[in-house]
What we know:
Blueprint: E1 6-10, E2 19-24, E3 27-34, E4 37-42, E5 56-58, E6 61-63, E7 70-72, E8 88-94, E9 97-106
Antiparallel strand pairs: 1-9, 2-3, 3-4, 4-8, 5-6, 6-7, 8-9
The chain binds FE2/S2 (inorganic) cluster.
Amino acid sequence: MSEQWRAVARVGDIRSGDVIAVDVDGTEMIVGLDGDRYFATQRRCVHSGGDLADGIVSRGHVICPQHGWRFSTLSGQTPEKSLLCLVTYAVRVVGEQIEVDPQPRTGTSS
Ligand code: FES
């Protein structure tokens, strides 16, 4: 499986603890900064469709604004329901560009 990196933002566009919404080839995602580590997941919460672009980032998790479920920014897993999992995507920084590989890295939702 080959990587197909897409530039989605520039370093400095996302403050630590924040997320932004991006559209990569028609796929809605969020890209966030947790401390000094960027992450990307699907935008819509697997519980009931909450918009994670309005979520909060806290110590390795993104917290859905709708009902407060916490999802690992690495694995997409939530302790609320082990079978529900966000799709996550690989992120890298090249120079001043933040890039996402739109091929799902983890996750089971559609
Ligand atoms: S919609 Fe996200 S926790 Fe319910």
